[in-house]
Design brief:
Blueprint (H helix, E strand, L loop, with lengths): L2 H26 L3 E8 L10 E2 L5 E9 L5 E12 L6 E10 L5 E7 L8 E9 L2 E10 L1
Parallel strand pairs: 2-8
Antiparallel strand pairs: 1-3, 3-6, 4-5, 4-7, 7-8
Length: 140
């Protein structure tokens, strides 16, 4: 084989190898929530943003990527604007240990005794101390 051609093959192989290592490193990325689905159906997959005042429960399903084992994930349910609570009132929160093999999860919020107050709501999902994802919804 021609020495110039051999050198070119070696250089090309080096670029391919280093390029694939770079893309694997880039793909690893920061721990994150990749998707959030709000629904009123247990094990539901159809995302909803509008719920009725008598909806029994609202479920949030989430999927994770690159989250280390034993990471604290916190779901914070917030009433942004309703007639009965102060703006951005924290309704409830739950902490879960996730990551590693646990790459998805669920949290939920049950209807209050006197039905949901109409208004604007949101769910904030924290990984550690940072908000990683969220979802807004309305109750009418």
């Amino acid at each position: 084989m021609n020495p110039v051609r051999l050198l070119l093959v070696v250089v090309m192989a080096s670029l391919v190898i280093s390029g694939s290592a770079t893309s694997q490193t880039a793909a690893a990325g920061k721990p994150r929530v990749t998707q959030v689905v709000l629904t009123d159906v247990v094990d539901g997959t159809q995302n909803k943003t509008l719920f009725g005042t008598t909806t029994p429960s609202i479920y949030a399903y989430f999927w994770l990527d690159q989250v280390p084992s034993n990471t604290t994930l916190t779901c914070v349910w917030v009433a942004e604007k309703t007639a009965v609570a102060a703006p951005n009132y924290q309704i409830d929160r739950v902490e879960l240990k996730v990551g590693g093999l646990i790459n998805r999860g669920q949290c939920s919020l049950s209807k209050p005794t006197n039905n949901w107050p109409a208004g604007d709501y949101r769910l904030d999902i924290y990984l550690g101390t940072e908000v990683s994802a969220g979802a807004r919804f309305r109750i009418r």
